Amino acid sequence: LVSAIPFLGEIIVQWLWGGFSVSNPTLNRFYSLHFLMPFIILALVIIHLLFLHQTGSSNPLGLNSNLSKIPFHPYFTYKDIMGFIIMSFMFMLVLKFYPNIFKDHDNFIQANPMVTPIHIQPEWYFLFAYAILRSIPSKLGGVIALTMSIMILFSMPLNKSMFSSSSFYPFGQFMFWMFVTSMLMLTWLGSQPIEYPFMIISQINSIMYFSFFFLINYINKLEDFLMN
């Protein structure tokens, strides 16, 4: 994917590989990255909780609710402990009794460096981005769309409207569920072969996916205007 970057692509690829091909330095670097990622995510979670305690959380009406606030402990402490217990139970249930339920059947084929599998795919939580990547014929365009499909999620806080809740925005709710539907469809399409009609459906759902982020702000402003 990185090799699609003009001019600097090949240099970056060789820097990531640590040579001219995938070798031991490559494996060491990516193993170290996978080891460090959980600690980076943990640090981001701590920063998130720090800001949450400093500024407080919002409410659907977007109004000041200091008079209605309740202590974090014991109300939310017990609630979070209960959620953690249920999540741990479900995790252990899958781990102990159904360990292969989320695995792809190709994972059970012995690796052969001389043969590339006919249909390779990432884990299920990356399938929507993988489907967007495959839906664009251009390699560079696919890489840009893949990157944008993740980065565009960070634009959601920029969506400003009169109310924080979508309960007051019926057209916004319709757009949201269209977005959820397109994301679920892309997740399914990412696991399908690269052939007709899956390619056409992937392109349509990719347009629906990105359209949500470009239209939702204007739709909310229109509904704010109609309510005024």
Number of helical stretches of at least 4 residues: 7
Described by the principal axes of the CA atoms, the overall outline is globular
Rounded to an integer, what's the Rg over CA atoms?
A: 22 Å
Number of strands: 0
What integer is the average pLDDT?
83
The domain tally reads 3
Describe this structure in words.
With 228 residues, the chain is mainly α. The protein folds into three domains: 1-58, no CATH class; 69-101; 116-227, plastocyanin oxidoreductase (Helix Hairpins, Orthogonal Bundle), CATH 1.10.287. 60% of the residues lie in helices and 0% in strands. The protein contains seven helices and no strands. The longest helix has 32 residues, at 24-55. The protein is globular. The model has no long low-confidence stretch (mean pLDDT 83).
Task: Furnish the topology, listing elements before pairings.
Blueprint: H1 9-17, H2 24-55, H3 75-97, H4 127-135, H5 139-151, H6 170-189, H7 198-227
Helix pairs in contact: 4-5, 4-6, 4-7, 6-7
Short description:
The protein has 228 residues and is mainly alpha-helical. Helices cover 60% and strands 0% of the residues.
List the main descriptive attributes of the protein structure presented here.
electron transport, globular, transmembrane, Helix Hairpins, mainly alpha, iron
